[in-house]
Structure formats: C-alpha cells, structure tokens
C-alpha cells in the first residue's frame, strides 16, 4: 500500500515538559561562578531527607514570577514533592544539593564550627536578568546538624515565610520565601509538632560566619577564595584595575555600610531579630534567618523577643550595637587578607588602623540613616536643629506608656499643625495623656515650620509608617488554623502584608491592638 504526497500521515507534536519538570530543569547546580563552585572545603553535596506526603501550605506569586514560572503550577503535586526535597528524578552525584560549612559567635561566645544543619541549597535560577539561589530549610540532617534532626516545624516555617515577604514589602533588605511545604511527619520540640520545609530565595546565603570559619582554622587560601567570590559576584566595584586600594578592605566597607542601613531599617519599624549571632548576619546586608523575631507592640526599648535570650543581648535597643560588634568579628576574620601593599614590621599596625577606620564608618552611616528615617516618620521634610531631641522625647513617652509602636507612628499623620483636632487617635494610645500633650505641643510647633500642607504631610508619612506588620498574634492565628490543614489565613495574611502602607478597610481588624492573650505568646530558638 502506498500513499500519495497529498495523503501524509499526521505527526504528533513532541510533548511539552510539565511545568514542574521545566522548573526543575531551570535550576543550575554547577555554574562556574556560583558558590557551589568553591568546592568541597566549603560545602558537602547530599540529597534532602525524604518527607512523606508533602502538601502546599503557601506560595509567593511574586517570587514564583521572579523565578520564571506561574504560581498556579504549584497545585501540581509534583511541586510539593520537589520543594519538600523529593524530586521526581535523582540528581547526578556531581549536581546534588549542598550544605555549606561556617562558624560563628553565638550570644557573644565563640561556638566553633556550625553550618547548614538543616538547610540545603538546590542551586540557582537565572530569569529576567537576575540570579537567585534556592535553599530548602528543614530538609533533613547534614554533616553540620550537631545532633539535631535537621527538620523545621510548621509554625516556624509559616512565620519565616510570612515575615520574609512582609519585610520585603516594607522595603527592608531580606531573603525571600517562595513557599512552605508541610507534612504530617512528627517532629519533637517542646511538644510533638509536624514537619515543614520553607524555600528561601536570595542572591547569596553567605554569612559573616563563613569567613570566620576559615580564619579560625588558619585556612587563608580558602578565606581569600571566598572573599574573591563575594567581590566578583556582588561587589565588583571593590576591585578596580587602576585603583591601588585594597579590595578586601573595600569589601569590609561595603558590608559595614549595608549593615548600618539594615540596623536603621529594623529600628525604624520596631523589628527585633532575636538571634543576631555572626552566623545569622548576611554578607549582602540582608535580614536572614527568621527564628525568634518579633515586631514590637507596646513600645519597650528593652524588649526581648527571644525567650532564650535571658541576658537581653539582642534586645531592641541593643541591635545597632550588636551589628557593630558583629562587624568587628568579620573584620578580624578578614585581617589576613588586608594590606598586601604594606611591608615589614609596620604591616600589622597599619592593617589594624585601616580596619578600625572602616568600622568607624558604621557610626557615621547609622546615625544619619536612622535620623532620616525618623524625620520621614514624623513628616519632617526639612532638617532643623533639635529634631533628634524631639524624636528621642517621643520614644521616652512611648516607652513610659508602652504605647503601641506601629499605631503611634501611623496615627501621628492625623495630627494637624493649627490645632489638636486630630490628636485623639494617637493620644488615646497613651495612658499619661498629659505627658503626650506636652510632646504634641512641641511637635505642632515644629510642624508649623514646615511648608507642606497637613494633607501632603499625612500622605508622605503614611508611605513610610506601615499600618500592617506581622504581629505575633496574627501569625499565631494563621498557624493554629494551618495545624488543622486550613491554610486560608496564611494566604489572607500574606495578602494583607503585601500592602503594608495601604488602608485596606476590609482588613481593618489586622491593624488593631493585639488581644490580651497575645501577651502570653513566646518565641524561642526551638524551631
């Protein structure tokens, strides 16, 4: 039997790869300039520990788009399998995920070798001109687990997912979160809980502690290799061909400036990190490792958000000082790389002087950075002598009255230059109203020196003073429902936190004062 040319048989189109298969294929695990290329001294390749019957708890459509796929694809069960650490196909040995080694100071004490005890890097995705690294937190034991089980629990994973996304939309540098995957696998903490994995996303997860590790072990070649990697990938301007300066000193300066800005960001929104160990400090100046964090409700300068921090080392008021202290640890780790242009006996003395000079830049950067943020929060477009005293007096009155941090600054926008007709919403947050009135009168006098109208000032203030932050009781409500497999509140709360500066009248309850039971909530390092 023969066919004429006009009676050709239909040819089937090649099947398109499933979206999750395409996503998996887009993850690069062996780029020559990626962190993983640094080699076995820096990391260990290993698969994730299988997590049974995983399910999707929440996903960030924003991050999904940045990675080049549609969040709707997450409804495919294969998505939960992949981001639980159970890919549909085995990774080749040379492309396995990886856990990195680092060391660090924990609560001010040298802790020695640490590392990704429950996190593994999947690799990088490049999309839209951006390269982002993906990391699974809670993916099982690694060589750096130090007798831990390598798991994260549902409550802490939801908190990290929500807060990392909330911080981004507040305009604060942070790692991001693609998704949370849950499982009914039991995990023992103070009580029996269930396991979860949160997928973190960032340009890099390199920490101060990575540098401390190689310094402490006198491995200068690896220390230089790591520093060169960070400079070449993220701070190339630190190494200029016709500049005789020291690229490693320039690196320290860049990290110092970014860390100062980050501390100012935290203080300005009342955010407490809770565990500012050097291994939890990002070399890119990102907020990283959301463990026992919290946003202050009733203002207390000595607020401690970490129940495990019995000495108050990481209290709210201490955060700038601790950021500065941590930079000294980083500088010490980089000392062997500094000053190749110096010779003879004077080298060490000159190197230390140069490093100290760079570190002093933290103070020069932090104070003006926080002052700018606070002037904006008070709607002061012009700079006047005494503005810093006005701000400090407000904090003193807030502290004495435990006035709600977020609502105080949000409601200041309702005050008016000419009279006290708009004072009530903020005034009612203070038990000692007379003390507030004294401050408010001085504030009104200061506002009278501004040329912008009350309406323009209010609009500007509302653009920097959030109405919605991730208060502990809001996260707790979402967690309690999620434990019953109801993830609607996780999604609803995430939606609210994506627009922290907008009014969102349909979500007014999310901006209210915390209920009485919220004062009993505690967070610690046991996640």
Automatic annotation (TrEMBL):
What molecular functions are annotated in GO for this chain? AMPylase activity; ATP binding; magnesium ion binding; manganese ion binding
Q: Which reaction does it catalyse?
A: L-histidyl-[protein] + UTP = N(tele)-(5'-uridylyl)-L-histidyl-[protein] + diphosphate; L-tyrosyl-[protein] + ATP = O-(5'-adenylyl)-L-tyrosyl-[protein] + diphosphate; L-threonyl-[protein] + ATP = 3-O-(5'-adenylyl)-L-threonyl-[protein] + diphosphate; L-seryl-[protein] + ATP = 3-O-(5'-adenylyl)-L-seryl-[protein] + diphosphate
Per UniProt, ATP binds at: 115, 117-118, 137, 149-150, 200, 207, 289
Q: Known InterPro entries for this protein?
A: SelO (IPR003846)
Query: Which cofactor names does the annotation list?
Result: Mg(2+); Mn(2+)
User: What is annotated as the active site?
Assistant: 279 (proton acceptor)
Q: Which parts of the sequence bind Mg(2+)?
A: 280, 289
Please state the Enzyme Commission number of this protein: 2.7.7.-, 2.7.7.108
Q: Which keywords does UniProt give here? A: ATP-binding, Magnesium, Manganese, Metal-binding, Nucleotide-binding, Nucleotidyltransferase, Transferase
Q: Which PANTHER family match?
A: PROTEIN ADENYLYLTRANSFERASE SELO, MITOCHONDRIAL
User: What family name appears in the similarity comment?
Assistant: Belongs to the SELO family.
Known role: Nucleotidyltransferase involved in the post-translational modification of proteins. It can catalyze the addition of adenosine monophosphate (AMP) or uridine monophosphate (UMP) to a protein, resulting in modifications known as AMPylation and UMPylation.
Q: What is this protein called?
A: Protein nucleotidyltransferase YdiU
